[in-house]
């Protein structure tokens, strides 16, 4: 697969990506879209969300903005009407009754092209039950050799039920459309020490899907690969300079900005899962 070709496509098309995301990560998500070559729109007010979605190439809905679900539904329905891909980040979807009910309402009201979350969030959506320990990734979310088959099957179940590509983020990333499943093994542990690294990845997926709306599985795989390779480059800089997670966040955005198609294709570690 030509992962770098999708990165080049983002840069040549500069898709407008509308992001309805939480206040903790809104700036980082906007900068991540810009770093990839897209153009961010952060329109979230219910009075303009649907109109903004009609002119965007992709829409990102982040459940961290739990108070904006009505805006997400209005924008999502508009994006569906105009054939724009909609990406869902079900932040802490299984942690409270409110999040369980609002995520269910979103899945019922909007047709999503991609759903990206950690393992506990994907389990919560697939089974509609309480799961996970909070917004940040925990030990429960680790995808290991032992639980990989179960994690893949849960993701496939959700993909088949919703018709969306499902991406599970972790030390091993899983991307499936219910039939095809790719495992990606890039990234580093420091990515989990930055608030919003998952939100930034979701925004990046929005940019890649906005550039290639007819190929959401491939676009999602390429976005996940780009984030992982960029994270490794940022980690190399952190270790060389002795800095911490705040500088790492900036270095990761910079790494996406400077990433070339050749570096992405040469650095990605992936396999098609046959289980």
Quick overview:
The chain is an alpha/beta fold. The protein has helices spanning about 5-15, 25-35, 50-55, 70-80, 95-110, 120-125, 150-160, 195-210, 215-240, 245-260, 260-265, and strands spanning about 15-20, 40, 60, 85-90, 115-120, 165-170, 175, 180-185, 270.
Descriptive overview:
This protein is an alpha/beta fold and about 280 residues long. The protein has helices at about 5-15, 25-35, 50-55, 70-80, 95-110, 120-125, 150-160, 195-210, 215-240, 245-260, 260-265, and strands at about 15-20, 40, 60, 85-90, 115-120, 165-170, 175, 180-185, 270. Helix 1 (about 5-15) crosses helix 8. The protein is globular. The relative contact order is 0.16. The model is unreliable at about 130-140 (pLDDT under 50).
Based on the model shown, name its key terms:
275 residues, alpha/beta, UDP-N-acetylmuramoyl-L-alanine:D-glutamate ligase, 9-stranded mixed β-sheet, 9 strands, globular
Superfamily (CATH H level) name: Ribokinase
When the domains are counted, the total is 1
In terms of DSSP E residues, the strand content is 5-15%
CATH topology: UDP-N-acetylmuramoyl-L-alanine:D-glutamate ligase
- Residue-averaged pLDDT, rounded? 94
The largest sheet is:
9 strands, mixed
Q: Structural class of the helices, strands and pairings?
A: alpha/beta
Query: Would you identify the CATH architecture?
Result: 3-Layer(aba) Sandwich
CATH class category name = Alpha Beta
Element-level helix/strand string? HEHEHEHEHEHHEEEHHHHE
Cα(first) to Cα(last) distance is 20 Å
Please give the count of helices: 11
| Shape by Cα distribution | globular
Unreliable stretches covering 5 or more consecutive residues? 130-138
């Amino acid at each position: 697969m030509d992962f770098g070709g999708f990165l080049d496509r983002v840069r040549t098309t500069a898709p407008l990506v509308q992001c309805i995301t939480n206040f903790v990560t809104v700036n980082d998500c906007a900068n991540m879209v810009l770093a990839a070559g897209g153009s961010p729109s952060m329109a979230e007010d219910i009075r303009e969300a649907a109109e903004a979605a009609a002119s965007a190439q992709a829409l990102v809905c982040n459940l961290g903005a739990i108070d904006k679900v009505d805006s997400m539904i209005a924008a999502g329905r508009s994006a569906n009407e105009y054939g724009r891909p909609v990406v869902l980040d079900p932040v802490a979807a299984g942690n409270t009754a409110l999040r369980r009910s609002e995520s269910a309402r979103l899945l019922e009201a909007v047709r999503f092209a991609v759903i990206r979350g950690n393992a506990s969030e994907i389990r919560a959506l697939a089974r509609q039950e309480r799961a996970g320990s909070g917004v940040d990734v925990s030990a429960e979310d680790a995808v290991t050799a032992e639980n990989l088959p179960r994690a893949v099957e849960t993701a496939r179940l959700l993909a088949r039920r919703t018709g969306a590509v499902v991406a599970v983020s972790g030390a091993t990333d899983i991307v499936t459309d219910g039939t095809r499943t790719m495992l990606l093994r890039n990234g580093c542990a420091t990515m989990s020490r930055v608030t919003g690294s998952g939100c930034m990845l979701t925004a990046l997926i929005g940019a890649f899907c906005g550039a290639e709306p007819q190929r959401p599985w491939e676009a999602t795989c390429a976005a996940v690969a780009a984030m992982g390779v960029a994270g490794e480059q940022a980690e190399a800089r952190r270790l060389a300079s002795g800095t911490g997670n705040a500088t790492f966040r900036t270095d990761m955005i910079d790494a996406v900005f400077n990433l070339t198609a050749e570096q992405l294709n040469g650095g990605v570690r992936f396999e098609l899962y046959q289980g």
